[in-house]
Amino acid sequence: MQRYLKTLKHSLAIMLVCLCLLLINTVVNVNFFGIAPRETSHLSGILFAPFLHGDWSHLLSNFFPFIIFSSLIGLHSVKRFWVVFILSILTTGTLVWLFARGQSIHIGMSGVVYAMWGYLIVYGFKEKHFRDILISLAVLLIYGGLVFGVLPSSANISYESHLFGALAGGAIGYFLSKNNRTKVNKDRLK
């Protein structure tokens, strides 16, 4: 329970940064620092985009899933949360920068939310521990509707962030699980 609360504090701090940036954006356009695909001047958007949101509803739509998913990941450890969070930002952002629609700026935490969603699903089934499988099933049942967010629905929604986030998160879950298994097997051989 202590780990869960530590990760919750970290998650809330991240969302507080998003809130502050949203308030600043009402005065000065900071959303310009999002991801503009294939524009070298916007490479920094890979790091900044998740913290930028267009309006209050955009921020709120990411708030609760982010808090829930990050807290579930944090059940392993706060370090695991940070590893998944940072890898999610870098991988999703890079894929969006490389392959998303041009002539637009992609912002928001939803790519990271989808990455955490993909991570939780793949990691649980790959790791095959009861708690992790239970979390995977719960995430699938409760948040299974997220799968529709990877489809184009509106010009103002970066479905590419959702799609690449889910793919990146699944890959992160797969490789972190594989890394755990390799470590366990090495420990058994000692």
From TrEMBL:
**Subcellular locations according to the entry:** Membrane
Name the domain of life: Bacteria
Q: Where are the transmembrane segments?
A: 12-36, 56-74, 81-99, 105-125, 132-151, 157-176
**According to its record, how does it sit in the membrane?**
Multi-pass membrane protein
Q: Which residues form the Peptidase S54 rhomboid domain?
A: 43-178
Which EC main class describes this enzyme? hydrolase
Species assigned in the record: Psychromonas aquatilis
MF terms from GO for this chain are:
peptidase activity
| EC id | 3.4.21.105
Protein name as catalogued: Rhomboid family intramembrane serine protease
Lineage, top ranks: Bacteria, Pseudomonadati, Pseudomonadota, Gammaproteobacteria, Alteromonadales
Q: Which Pfam families match?
A: Rhomboid
